[in-house]
Amino acid sequence: MLTGGPGVGKTTLVNSLLRILQAKQVEVQLAAPTGRAAKRLQETTGCEAKTVHRLLEFDPSAYRFKRDAEYPLEAELLVLDEASMLDTVLMNQLLRALPDETALLLVGDVDQLPSVGPGRVLADLIASGAIPTVRLTEVFRQALSSRIIVNAHRIHSGERPIAPAKGETSDFYLIEAADAEDLADKLVASVTQRIPKRFGFDPLADIQVLTPMNRGGLGTQALNLALQQRLNPDAQPRLQRFGTTYAPGDKVIQRVNNYDKEVFNGDIGQITRIDAEAGLVVVEIDGRAVEYEASALDELSLAYAISIHKAQGSEYPVVVIPLAMQHYALLERNLLYTGVTRGRQLVVLIAEAKALRIALGRQQATRRITRLAERLGGLG
Amino acid sequence: MLRVKVRGQRDLVTVVGSAAAVSPGETIEALGQWVQDAKHGLQFRAERLQVILPGTREGIEKYLGSGLVRGIGPHFARTLVNAFGEAVFEVIEQSPERLEELPGIGRKRRAQITAAWAEQQVVREIMVFLQSHGVGTARAVRIYKTYGEAAILTVSENPYRLALDIWGIGFKTADTLAQSLGIPRDSLLRACAGVRHALQVWSEQGHCASEPEALLTQASQLLEIPAPIIEQAIEDEVQAEHLIRDQGLLYLTPLYRAEQGCAVQLQRLLQGTPPWGQIDVSRALPWVEIQTGLTLAPSQRAALRPCSQARSRC
Fold first, then answer.
1. Are strands A134-135 and B243-246 parallel, antiparallel or unpaired?
2. Residue B218 domain flag
3. Based on the domain organization, do B35 and B92 belong to the same domain?
4. Which of A95, A148, A212, B279 shows the greatest Cβ crowding within 10 Å of its Cβ?
């Protein structure tokens, strides 16, 4: 296992290892838990990378994986990135499909939020002491010039992120908000005007709002409505289903895996066409046109704002994060850490001072009940 | 509450009652009595409310174009009614080949329309059943797609199956349906499904298992069933191997298998031998630095050693 935070050189290390092993003709497969993470792995390594579901050849008609102990994967080394996102169920499916002689390298940041599904596999494997683990901690000099990385590490150790001096250009901004209303105003202004004007980013394609919750005035639902009104107010025709109005141009996210359409939980796209007569919505996802019948629109939500949990394993050019007292129940250090590390070029944190303080101070409020570490230790 | 145009009445009439899906433009038949409501004036309180196929050209057009039948929108509905008048339903059902008389309708479109119409009819029947028990349209369609024409039978036998089989239907919906089908709230059937549900809710917060006392308390509160019945349900579910008791915890069986499986599989993989034999790191390191044009830091060099040499375990 290889673990460590941003800027510690996991990618370089994986690439070096791949070079050496490929020179020895070792047959390598690469995978990651989500489509976006797999795509990024493919970009950084230059080798084909699949989602775990594709690697294991999920068969939607039987609702099971074709790859298993009887029909195992063919590889000498499997590298699995963003391993912190793997839940116990998927991990088990993956391990079953590995032959005895296949090596497995799990790469991930154990300080990210644990998987959405049950368990905290990566943390348990480390805690068991049974799996050889390399933990990189040294942040490289070139990474230190990025305030995103520096602040991610500060957040990780419970320290307040450093904001740039007034007028200084930075890749990390901390904007204080007096209350929820002030925060909402500042957020909408940042996304629709200030960031596009100052940095030239596109509000739809480049900027992603990541919020701790779905409900409440600063949750995904309310922020999506506010941002839709500002960014796509007049497009026609409009189609209303399941409490959401959709129009051409809207940014949307797929909420569940749909194997028929080959679109997956967390895929983000844009509505290109609506045929109100036929009840059809066409969404372009990764350059591909995907059709939704009106009755299937509950698989989608607007995606101007998504939850930090949904953003796990994905990166975006610009990330804007609201942090307010109304998010109290969820405020936690690794939530903020996960949100901040999603931003590649610019992170804007808009926070009520008290909410930020609570998030930095609170750690592992939710302990997960598992016995995986004990089972591994006991067997070893 | 419906606002209905009634023949012989000048103003719209308010009809109160419970019915399956009603869309604008549909014709209804209501049995009941007129009442004078203190707040809302004259209303018709319907004991029975039924949607009947519309008789007027206008009604037919609205019904067809309401989006209930896939592939027919308001525009095409008008074309259909203009061509076939009040006989349009008969045409679709009995002589669908006549649809091809219309401009732009070929064999393929005709097949689409007749299929959608047939589906609409079965779905409608199932919806009437499900909606009379409080299940909404979108879910009813999903239930139909899963169970097909056996939906009514399947659901009335054990509505709690829905929570296991249908995405988007949780224990709560199934439970509502069960109540209206007359399954007692403190029945063992409900308690068993409910215990699984409580554990499911728990696992959605990231847990693989629960301590038995915690589950007992949670399930008892959640289901409003006395603890002794919950205890019995837990025993039954353990007997049925829907739940597993291990290491002092209660697991949903699939989660137990997954956790245990992870441990066993990792142990198996740890015992393998590396497929690439020994690698001379002292030679490979300088080579890869030239290849990539990057100099590895001491921490990375140190990391490469165990990664390339560990006995098949990286």
1. unpaired
2. yes
3. yes
4. A212
A 17-36 → B contacts, CB under 8 A: 17, 19-21, 23-24, 26
**Is there a domain that residue B238 lies in?**
yes
**What is the domain count for chain B?**
4
Do B20 and B86 reside in the same domain of the chain?
A: yes
Is the same domain home to B159 and B141?
A: yes
Length of chain B: 314
Q: Which residue of B has its CA nearest to A94?
A: B262
Q: Are residues B158 and B222 located together in one domain of the fold? A: no
Tell which residue, A268, A337, A317, has the closest CA to residue A84: A337
Q: Are B176 and B192 in the same domain?
A: no
Residue of chain A with shortest Cα separation from B209: A369
User: Which of A 291-330 lie inside 8 A of B, CB atoms?
Assistant: 293-295, 298
The H or E element spanning position A13 is: helix A10-23
CA of B195, closest CA in chain A: separation in Å? 18
Mean pLDDT on A341-368: 91
B41-52/B13-16 β-pairing: parallel
The residue of chain A nearest to residue B69, with distances taken between CA atoms, is A278
Window A:67-106, CB contacts with B under 8 Å: 76-77, 88-89, 91-92, 95-96, 98, 100-105
Reported ipTM: 0.87
Whether B292 sits inside 8 A of A370 (CB atoms) is no
Residue B60, domain member (yes or no): yes
Report the C-alpha gap between B313 and A128 in whole angstroms: 15
* pLDDT tens column, A249-295: 999 999 887 877 888 888 899 999 999 888 899 999 988 999 998 87
Tokens encoding B130: 């499900």
Query: Do B234 and B301 reside in the same domain of the chain?
Result: no
Task: Give me the long-range contacts of B252-257 (CB less than 8 A, separation at least 24).
Answer: B252/B196, B252/B199, B252/B200, B252/B203, B254/A89, B255/A88, B255/A89, B255/A118, B255/B203, B255/B208, B255/B209, B256/B208, B256/B209, B257/A92
CATH, residue B248 = 1.10.10.10
Domain identity same for B97 and B158: no
Report the candidate in A28, A68, A35 with the shortest Cα–Cα distance to residue A51.
A35
Q: Which of B119, B123, B208 to mutate to test the interface with A (most CBs of A within 10 A)?
A: B208
CB contact under 8 A, B288 and A19: yes
Of A95, A100, A118, the CB nearest to B255: A118
Q: What is the pLDDT of residue A129?
A: 92
Q: What is the pLDDT of residues B182-216, one digit of tens each?
A: 889 999 989 999 999 999 989 988 999 999 999 99
A107 reaches B (C-beta below 8 A)? no
The 10s digit of each residue's pLDDT in B233-262 is 999 999 999 999 998 999 999 999 999 999
Per the structure, the complete domain to which residue B97 belongs is given by 16-102
Lowest mean pLDDT segment, chosen from A56-60, A282-286, A325-329, B117-121: B117-121
Q: Do A100 and B314 touch (CB under 8 A)?
A: no
In a domain, B112, yes or no: no
